[in-house]
Amino acid sequence: MSLAATAVPDDEGERRMIPEAESFQYRGGQLFCEDVSVGDLAEQHGTPLYIYSAAHLRRQYRRLADALAEVAPCIHYAVKANTCGAVIRTLAAEGAGADVVSGGELFRARRAGIPAARVAFAGVGKTRDEIAFALREGIEYFTVESEPELERIADVAQALGARARVAIRVNPDVDPRTHVYTSTGRKESKFGVDLERARRAYECAAARPELEIAGIHMHLGSPLADEKPYAEALDKVAPLCAWLRERFPTCRTLDLGGGFGIPYKRRQKPFDLDAFAAAVIPRVKAIGLRLAIEPGRYIVGNAGILVARVQYVKDNAFRRFVIVDAAMNDLIRPPLYGAWHEIVPVRETAGEVVADVVGPVCESGDFLAQERKLPDVREGDLLAVMSAGAYGFAMASNYNSRGRAAEALVDGANAMLARVRESWEDLVAAER
Length: 432
Ligand code: LLP
Prior knowledge:
TIM Barrel, 2 domains, alpha/beta, eight-stranded parallel barrel, Lyase, Ornithine Decarboxylase, Chain A, domain 1
């Protein structure tokens, strides 16, 4: 059975899998990532284990680049989605830049081979040390979230005898129609400068000789289902862009942010890149600035799975619980956002039960799925949690003193252990 929906006829119903996760397919009843058996990798490295497909990373990166080729966008991979060095290196080799939100992410991006000149630094709370580090590295630009931040960046640049390129993040007040925790382009949010105040903020920037106005930035939220909020936001910022172009010849970039959605469910369609391109390209051309985008999830989301082993199958009077060795500390999206991740057996298994898939953490919120139809799995069986490449390991913690999972990157018939599982010693290594 193929995980590509296009290859599976409609009448297969529930057996149909996530359309975009083309790198994960069953062969002879066993789940493979590209040409490597998921079960073999789990035996070799243990569970819980994140597995990423390099082919998927490249495919999604190229899909975006191709769809927008007419305006040759600058693609800054949003490192926060997946910070694994092997993942960032794979994208660096494709020519990706990076969108970072901390000194730590800048450090990781540079270490993985992303040129500083292709890095945009975002975030509402940049510290002086982070700003200084970014200036010394020579990043492409800061996306600036407030007037006080402009002043701080200018002060740090002055102290270093450097010049900082800035793009002010504007808040276009567009409803991205996504989870309230991940909506960022609404008036109420902490992000960006209101459109009405943006001109004044740019005047502040122009008054400081240490600052060069490099562009304008926005990010509406994540994940977004379609192109409409982007089109609406571009229409709202177009007059400001015209004003910027006229005033500041150094203003070249229009950074549209990220947030392009992915299918998490069997019946969901992939984000319609053609419709996105049809909406964005003419608007960007009319505005006359160079387009930059910051995709995270779109590139890594369906590149990854989290493999867990069933520890116990427990029945109570009301429910069946499939207790696995992965938990909310490994993948927090289901309890945090009510997010849905498909869960499939690594070895195709007959039967059907309805169960909660839960971890060993001592909270009732520790679930990967609730009241989910599953094959009749037993102790020792392996399950794959799909679409776990974005905001999976990146949001993992050591809660309940659980070491974070191992990560492997598959490329064709090759697999490499990208990160070893954290040991108990690792848990206490930083303590004094
Ligand atoms: N640019 C900026 C300024 C952002 O804040 C984000 C994500 C991105 C780009 C990338 O968004 P993406 O293309 O990956 O959707 N933890 C949540 C998602 C939080 C997104 C935060 N910002 C989740 O698991 O769904």
